[in-house]
Specification:
By secondary structure, this protein is α+β, with helices and mostly antiparallel strands. It has a domain at 34-103: 2-Layer Sandwich (Ribosomal Protein L30, Chain: A). Helices cover 40% and strands 20% of the residues. The protein has helices at residues 38-47, 53-66, 76-93; strands spanning 25-31, 68-75, 98-103. It has a three-stranded antiparallel sheet. The protein starts with 24 loop residues before the first strand and ends with a strand.
């Protein structure tokens, strides 16, 4: 008699009705204003969004000329954190820099 062979056979059946989807992505946007300096915007883009000096300058000029520039594309939580970081740093420096996010 084999003690390791149970008299009951078990099997596991797993069915899922949902497909896994990629999370929605969000654009983080900077808005132009008449008070925030261009140098500060470049600094924000470099520090918060890890942009090179060249890319940060291009985005800053787009914000300055067109009134709005995309800083990056992130999941909701990351976008929200970056947005809040921009607002905290801008407030500490006395700038009214507006940063928003929208679903792609």
């Amino acid at each position: 008699m084999n003690l390791h062979t149970p008299g009951i056979k078990e099997s596991v059946t797993s069915e899922t009705g949902e497909e896994l989807r990629e999370p929605p992505m969000y654009k983080v946007l900077l808005h132009n204003d008449d008070y925030t300096t261009m140098d500060f915007v470049v600094e924000i883009l470099s520090v918060v969004f890890n942009k090179s000096a060249e890319d940060a300058t291009k985005i800053m000029l787009k914000v300055h000329v067109e009134g709005l520039g995309v800083c990056g594309l992130y999941t909701f939580e990351v976008a929200e954190t970056k947005l809040n970081t921009v607002h905290v740093i801008a407030a500490e420096k006395g700038f009214p820099l507006k940063c928003t996010m929208e679903e792609e």
